[in-house]
Design brief:
The protein is an alpha/beta fold. The protein is 38% helix and 24% strand. It is globular, with a radius of gyration of 20 Å. The two termini are 40 Å apart.
Length: 354
């Protein structure tokens, strides 16, 4: 039995907790938040034995064998590094950290410790996305020509005019940390390394300090281009749509709803078809949960526990998290400098650095 502690009483309690509990090898034994009394009450209500008001107490608890973290991006680095120093595998949320230096320190500690690490990039753990990947690999569209991402929703933070990390650009957040980090990961999962990009970031007309919208052009190392438009300030937006256009066909993932994970449908057409045809994909695991994020996170949790038991390097881990952090940093530099960033050249320089 793997005894796990969770730092974070929001997403950590509502999504990570049931996802980890779905695996019979895991027992969640502790929960940590910033308020001792509130965390203790939440732990009792969730059937968790211990509730701490300080993450350090959880990390240093000898009964906790592995640590999951669901906090502000700017707080994750110190918690993860401390847990790894104590010899405990770590599961974190995206984005990896508040800045590139902190993400680098996390990866360095993970490399030294040689312990399993995982980051919660979860879109590719939904069954429609898995099927789409299989079809692309099998030549469903032929040689890829280009990719488009159109992700337009109105987030709760925007609806409520909250000023938190999800829409503020500092501390690793804003539209880059909250949304585009996912896009960078899944685009490379589908299509291979990103070789270059150009990005523009904006906020609301009456509140430009918020970061809500990104327009981006990207080029994959394999050659195809990608156009990406994302805004979390789109009232009645069209949802989340990824289109793969190839020499021989087209493949589309589209979710018109407000649930970020649930609602995706897969469509395909191959020459000489005149219209896209829906590909039926069933996920019996997802249906048993009230929250659409739980099933995909449970699949990542299984990979995490497999690595704890048997060794190996689960993916996506800190290496993938660090790469996405570098791409986020490149996007922000592109916006600030108003220029195209040749990421493949930076890759070569990064790999040759001592």
């Amino acid at each position: 039995m793997i005894r796990l502690g969770i730092v974070g009483t929001n997403y950590g309690r509502t999504v990570q907790l049931p996802a980890f509990r779905a695996d019979p090898r895991c027992q969640v034994v502790a929960l940590a938040g910033s308020d001792q009394a509130r965390t203790a009450e939440l732990a009792r209500a969730a059937g968790v034995a211990k509730g701490y008001g300080d993450w350090r107490a959880l990390v240093e608890d000898a009964d906790v064998q592995a640590v999951a973290i669901a906090t502000l991006p700017s707080l994750q680095a110190q918690i993860a590094i401390r847990a790894l120093e104590f010899g405990k595998p770590v599961f974190i949320e995206k984005p990896m950290a508040g800045d590139l230096a902190a993400a680098r320190a996390m990866l360095q500690q993970a490399t030294v410790s040689r312990l399993p690490t995982m980051i919660d990039f979860n879109f590719h753990q939904t069954m429609n996305w898995q099927r789409a990947k299989q079809m692309l690999n099998a030549g469903a569209v032929g040689t890829l020509r280009h990719v488009t991402v159109h992700w337009h929703v109105e987030s709760r933070a925007i609806q409520m005019r909250m000023r938190n990390w999800k829409i503020m650009g500092d501390d690793g957040g804003g539209v880059l940390g909250n949304f585009i980090s996912h896009c960078f990961h899944y685009l490379e999962w589908f299509c291979g390394p990103i070789a270059g990009l150009s990005a523009r970031i904006s906020g609301l007309p009456d509140d430009p300090e918020l970061e809500t919208t990104v327009a981006m052009a990207l080029r994959f190392q394999a050659g195809p281009l990608c156009s990406l438009s994302m805004s979390c300030a789109s009232f009645l937006g069209a949802g989340h749509r990824i289109e793969f256009f190839g020499e021989d066909g087209t493949l589309v993932l589209h979710n018109p709803g407000v649930d970020y994970m649930r609602g995706f449908e897969l469509f395909h057409a191959k020459r000489p078809a005149a219209a896209l045809e829906r590909i039926a994909v069933i996920d019996p695991v997802d249906a048993q949960y009230p929250e659409g994020l739980i099933a995909p996170v449970s699949r990542l949790a299984k990979k995490f526990f497999d690595a704890i038991e048997s060794g190996g390097t689960p993916t996506p881990g800190f290496a993938e998290g660090y790469r996405v952090q570098r791409l986020m940093d490149a996007a922000r530099r592109s916006h600030n400098q108003g220029k195209w960033i040749d990421f493949s050249a930076e890759d070569a320089s990064h790999e040759s650095a001592p």
